[in-house]
């Protein structure tokens, strides 16, 4: 995927029409076999430009860590929230992701005037929102949220690896890599695996 720097064009336009506090939100970990889905939300300071903001998937890990530090130091507000595997299995991944985003938004202090969401709309928000197609590539606040969520979740997966190194969580972060699938085939699911993720057919492709 080609890296494209996200811009503040949409945030600036919204501020010009009266939305002073513009938040962006995004989630990571939807396609994983293990671990939580994690949502980030960020209100960027319009007077502090943070260069290099882009979709977290195209930013190298060491640069993500640097951007995370910049975002969390200089943003007007930021928050993260996660839905654990049990919640994902109970609600399904789509609704668990939306619930994590809603909780992350409501944890902000101050609350935003409007929330920009990557692709979806979040139910039961008490403020305006707008879905932005491919928002993590286009919108700086959403890109910042994706980086905060990604770094937070990756660190959680490293901790899970330290607690149980059998699955290699620190390397693949819970995604269904051949290494991960082989470990599940050998050891079975752990407490942090999502039972609703049907990986059995993937085992067949490894034969």
Q: Short description, anyone?
A:
The chain has 207 residues and is of the alpha/beta class.
Structure, described:
By secondary structure, the protein is of the alpha/beta class. It has a single domain, classed as Ribonuclease H-like superfamily/Ribonuclease H (Nucleotidyltransferase, domain 5, 2-Layer Sandwich). Helix content is 44%, strand content 15%. The chain has 9 helices and 5 strands, in the order αββαβααββααααα. It has helices at 9-16, 61-74, 85-91, 93-106, 135-138, 140-163, 169-172, 178-187, 200-205; strands at 22-28, 37-43, 77-83, 114-118, 128-132. β1 (22-28) and β2 (37-43) form a beta hairpin. The two termini are 29 Å apart.
Mean pLDDT: 93
The biggest beta sheet is recorded as: 5 strands, mixed
Which fold name is given in CATH as the topology? Answer: Nucleotidyltransferase, domain 5
Q: What percentage of amino acids are in beta strands?
A: 5-15%
Helix fraction, binned, reads 40-55%
Spell out the helices and strands N to C: HEEHEHHEEHHHHH
**Shape estimate:** globular
CATH architecture: 2-Layer Sandwich
**Tally of helical segments:** 9
Structural domain tally: 1
Strand order of the largest sheet: 3-2-1-4-5
Secondary-structure blueprint of this entry?
Elements: H1 9-16, E1 22-28, E2 37-43, H2 61-74, E3 77-83, H3 85-91, H4 93-106, E4 114-118, E5 128-132, H5 135-138, H6 140-163, H7 169-172, H8 178-187, H9 200-205
Parallel strand pairs: 1-4, 4-5
Antiparallel strand pairs: 1-2, 2-3
């Amino acid at each position: 995927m080609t890296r494209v720097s996200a811009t503040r064009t949409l945030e600036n336009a919204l501020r010009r029409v009266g939305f002073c506090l513009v938040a962006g939100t995004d989630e990571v970990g939807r396609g994983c076999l293990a671990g939580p889905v994690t949502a980030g939300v960020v209100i960027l300071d319009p007077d502090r430009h943070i260069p290099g903001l882009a979709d977290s998937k195209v930013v190298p890990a060491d640069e993500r860590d640097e951007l995370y530090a910049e975002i969390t130091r200089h943003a007007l507000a930021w928050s993260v929230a996660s839905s654990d595997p049990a919640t994902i299995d109970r609600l399904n991944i789509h609704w668990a992701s939306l619930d994590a985003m809603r909780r992350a938004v409501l944890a902000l202090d101050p609350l935003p005037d409007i929330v920009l969401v990557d692709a979806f709309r979040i139910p039961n928000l008490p403020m305006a929102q707008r879905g932005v197609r491919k928002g993590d590539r286009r919108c700086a606040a959403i890109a910042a949220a994706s980086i905060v969520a990604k770094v937070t979740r990756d660190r959680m997966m490293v901790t899970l690896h330290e607690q149980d190194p059998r699955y290699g969580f620190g390397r693949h972060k819970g995604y269904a890599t051949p290494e991960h699938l082989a470990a599940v085939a050998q050891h079975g699911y752990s407490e942090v695996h999502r039972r609703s993720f049907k990986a059995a057919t993937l085992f067949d492709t490894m034969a």
